Fold Fatty acyl-CoA reductase.
Amino acid sequence: MEDIFANPLFETVKGMRGLDTLVSQCTVIGGDVTEPELAISPEDRTLITENVSIIYHCAATIRFDETLKKAVMLNTRGTKYMIDLAKQCKKLDMFGYVSTSYCHLNEKLLLEKPYAPPADPHKVIKAVEWLEEGVVDGMTKKILGDCPNTYAYTKALAEALVVESMDEIPAVIFRPSIVIPTWREPIPGWTDNINGPVGLLIGAGKGVIRSMYCNSDGYGDYLPVDFAVSAMCVCTWNYVGNKDHKRNIYHLVSSAEIKVSWEGIIERGKWIVSNKIPLNGVLWYPGGSMKRTRWEHNLSAFFFHWIPAFLIDCLLYCFGYKPILWRIHQRIAKGFEVFEYYANNQWDFDNATILHLRTIINEEEKVKFKIDAGGVEIQEYFENCIRAARWYILKETDDTIPAARRHMRVMWWVDKICKTLIYGGLIYYIGKALYSMLFASVF
């Protein structure tokens, strides 16, 4: 709890209420969703079942390349254990399961309704419990079928468990899309990880990512995390306060109102770091492009990712430093394997319940609990994201910006000079070859 409240995210509320007040209002329960009975002590379980009225189940592994056994134990069986606990709560008003709008990927238009799971979750849990991890790993591709990763598969299974429980407990499902940094509250652009678009912005801004295999005109559905939290609060008020139990699946999405293409994200990011908020230690001037075919990307990655990584790591090794760039590009390539599936497919989402909620909250609540896109400036938002990433992820303070700008100007000249030399050399040798062929054909 001390670590949580030490996060800059809580500075505003600590200033308003004081840290001691916040601590006094919280109770820590030791537990583990991968363990039977959630590893909660009998005393703590009694404390929960006698007092708790609202549960938000958010715990999950969000790694797309997680092993199937671990993902099932955490995402699916963990949800089953949480439902079992909720059934024991005497004052339960709502059990809220945080799912994802990207867990039924065979549906190109996802509606706010239950969908059949890819398998029987109970049978999958029993099978995974019984089998060794190595055996499960060997069967993973066959088990997943058309599902691209263990995350989507196990979240879909968990949804089925929640739907199954709706006859016994008051349960709702929240389906947020790709959760991205905050819009404004409590810190503009805040995040604590480099998942999603932030990682792309940093990679492109550092000059490391030069190519991606992606439908540049396609778009993802993004949701700032403060919008997601506000929406969950309003949905809870509607379900519990208004007793609107018919609406129990909520899509927390944005693409019906704001569509930002993948190319738009990268181009905005490159412009911002090149002209307004440069990052420290840029390896090359931001550039490159998205490729519509895999062979184009692979060719570009070979010349602009792998060869530079090898050469720079050799220099680092010679100067006594630990090689790092090759390992970074291995991680980027692994991330691209997941990203490419989502970037080259398209989904849309119906959000009729949220549209309804906008009509029943008052003007003050519309400001405090932001659940619409009014006033959102995309350019300003991405600038805040990069500035916050500089502070909170890269630990680059504002006093380093002038030096970063000077370094960026140097890298601009290096980029132009190198391109001039390379293209000039190619033109020279091609011209020389053509002249030789022409001379030979004449004589």
Remarks:
- DSSP finds 17 helices and ten strands in the chain.
- The chain has a mean pLDDT of 89.
- The two ends are 86 Å apart (CA to CA).
- The longest strand covers residues 171-176.
